[in-house]
């Protein structure tokens, strides 16, 4: 079996030398255990934080150890009554081709015509993040204006589509014209390409002269500053991520216009999706219906082969993905 271990901690942008593909062997399965062949694995921006040796909401990855992350796989051998051969499971045991487990922290996937990869994306953690940020943090209302950054990614593309379903006017920011066209095809009227805009704040004003009621923050830095300039009184900012800063080697200065928080009486709230996981069944029921009816589209960017996982991960910071970035294992 094969696995990917963390060789060294990245300084700044991660590189391929930070990772090694290694061979491992597995013991025979014991009573109460089963063997999983991973079919899909996820790469996510939060993994960059786990590569830094520091205290956070989740423990850092250990050097020389196999990495972890969301994965979906198929049971190919079993001595466990609740996990039969042929069933599909989701786990945090990504970055490896196979593994043996007793089933703790494993979820059986429902029988569905959907590809198991969607349980890593629109029906999984990123989709749940978009739903949580809009419903439980920002409490977006019909008729309001929503601004979403990193809007064509796993979380952002769901946040845009849910915003439209909730009756909001959606303004989005992305890093390429191609991504902008994809979002427009989904019904997002105003999309800014932040890479070809020299004044993001002015571009946001032009896209939403009525002002922003809710900002779904995925990027930080200049995006946060531009949003603060354009927020309406009593606006809400759901702080989901700040990907523009994850590879910084020195602390990033804050926006110079933070005083708008007072003047505009803003509510700014950070959140971690796992604290809201008790609401997953409610989310999954709604999302399942939206996917089945075609009201939500599940876009993915697929890299093939475990050895491509480091490339896929690095690609997140280079804007290589549209929709959820996933790795298809052999
Ligand atoms: P994405 O699928 O959005 O992938 C990352 C995207 O971010 C890239 O495609 C790129 O798109 C954009 N990006 C990368 N670097 C920059 C930069 N310097 N400036 C602006 N945009 C950049 O990832 P996810 O949807 O998985 O995650 C989105 C955000 O949500 C991240 O900040 C992540 O940490 C956060 N998150 C938070 C969770 C929580 O519980 N709080 C849970 C899950 C995710 P482009 O081409 O448009 O630049």
Automatic annotation (TrEMBL):
<keyword id="KW-0560">Oxidoreductase</keyword>
<dbReference type="InterPro" id="IPR045010">
    <property type="entry name" value="MDR_fam"/>
</dbReference>
<dbReference type="InterPro" id="IPR036291">
    <property type="entry name" value="NAD(P)-bd_dom_sf"/>
</dbReference>
<dbReference type="Pfam" id="PF00107">
    <property type="entry name" value="ADH_zinc_N"/>
</dbReference>
<dbReference type="Pfam" id="PF16884">
    <property type="entry name" value="ADH_N_2"/>
</dbReference>
<dbReference type="InterPro" id="IPR041694">
    <property type="entry name" value="ADH_N_2"/>
</dbReference>
<dbReference type="InterPro" id="IPR013149">
    <property type="entry name" value="ADH-like_C"/>
</dbReference>
<dbReference type="InterPro" id="IPR011032">
    <property type="entry name" value="GroES-like_sf"/>
</dbReference>
<feature type="domain" description="Enoyl reductase (ER)">
    <location>
        <begin position="14"/>
        <end position="327"/>
    </location>
</feature>
<protein>
    <submittedName>
        <fullName>NADP-dependent oxidoreductase</fullName>
    </submittedName>
</protein>
<dbReference type="InterPro" id="IPR020843">
    <property type="entry name" value="ER"/>
</dbReference>
